[in-house]
Amino acid sequence: MGESLKAIKEVFELTDRDLRSYSPLTLAYLGDAVYEVIIRCLLTGRGNCSVNKLHQSALAYVSAGSQARLMDRIEPLLTQEEEAVFRRGRNAHSPTMAKHASMADYRRATGFEALVGFLFLEGKEERILELIHAGIIGQPEEDVGSCTGRQEG
């Protein structure tokens, strides 16, 4: 990811910006996409599968409730700076709310996404992967291991 971000900046001639000037919801917007790509890579890396099954499996990871539970597991691992970014995201006033989540879960998920967005822009992709790995260990997995060979459906 770090090399990808570097390439994007070079191709589009983007300059570095002070990340403290970014709103937490902007960081969450990016963090949501980064997290989604990581989960999609994780699931497709387990085997070829129908897109519908992949989508259903991804929901176990990307829902606000799942992200809030992930945050519960990784919060003790955060540095002071990471904790501050998480709190800014959690406390941000979003104009929307997830349809199938409590306000508390939605806010914690937004904080998590802000943290991922911040770390991505900092070029700390290894830290993102470390935290996500620690957060999903022990989480029940969907049965995507059986998806190998030809695509189903």
Summarize the structure in words.
With 153 residues, this protein is an all-alpha fold. The protein has a single domain, classed as Ribonuclease iii, N-terminal Endonuclease Domain, Chain A. It is 64% helix and 0% strand. The protein contains seven helices and no strands. The protein has helices spanning 2-11, 24-45, 51-62, 64-74, 80-91, 103-121, 125-136. Helix 2 packs across helix 3. The longest helix has 22 residues, at 24-45.
Quick tags:
153 residues; mainly alpha; Ribonuclease iii, N-terminal Endonuclease Domain, Chain A; single chain
Outline the secondary-structure elements.
Layout (H helix, E strand, L loop, with lengths): L1 H10 L12 H22 L5 H12 L1 H11 L5 H12 L11 H19 L3 H12 L17
What does this entry show, briefly?
With about 150 residues, this protein is mostly helical. The protein is built from seven helices and no strands.
Secondary structure tally: strands? 0
By secondary-structure content and strand pairing, the structural class works out as mainly alpha
Q: Poorly predicted ranges (pLDDT <50, ≥5 residues)?
A: 142-146, 149-153
Mean pLDDT across all residues, rounded? Answer: 86
Q: Give the N-terminus to C-terminus distance in angstroms.
A: 31 Å
Taking the sheet with the most strands, its summary is:
none
Q: What series of H and E elements makes up the topology? A: HHHHHHH
| CATH topology annotation | Ribonuclease iii, N-terminal Endonuclease Domain, Chain A
